[in-house]
Amino acid sequence: MEQKTAAVKHYLEHGRSIARTRRALGYPCKDVLRTWCDELIPKTRKKRTGQFPVPASANVHMLRLLGLEDKSAADTKRPQAKIGRC
């Protein structure tokens, strides 16, 4: 119980980072630490999705700014270098 409390306390005091807490304390595995956080401080753990969704309208707007809205995808690709045989 003492390790659980110490780990959750460190998690809260150091930016609520599972990875940072594990590196600093050397324990527990991420799944165990998540479980401990959910037990001791329910609904306070940060949930990260990895990417922020970009609305389609923003993509269209950027294409207009770049002057690419009427070009096909094939026209916007970078030309590939041709490698000949020796």
Task: Give a structural overview.
This protein has helices at 2-13, 18-25, 30-40, 56-66, 73-76. The protein is mostly helical. The chain has a domain at 2-40. The chain starts with a helix and ends in a 10-residue tail after the last helix. The mean pLDDT is 76.
Topology:
Layout: H1 2-13, H2 18-25, H3 30-40, H4 56-66, H5 73-76
Discrete helix count: 5
What does the main sheet amount to? none
What is the averaged pLDDT score? 76
Poorly predicted spans: none
In which range does the helix fraction lie?
40-55%
Q: What fraction of the residues are assigned to beta strands by DSSP? A: under 5%
Query: How do the SSEs run, as a string of H and E?
Result: HHHHH
Structural class label: mainly alpha
Cα radius of gyration in angstroms: 24 Å
Keywords:
86 residues; elongated; mainly alpha
Briefly say what this structure is.
This protein is 53% helix and 0% strand. It is mainly alpha-helical. Helix 1 packs across helix 2 and helix 1 packs across helix 3 (30-40).
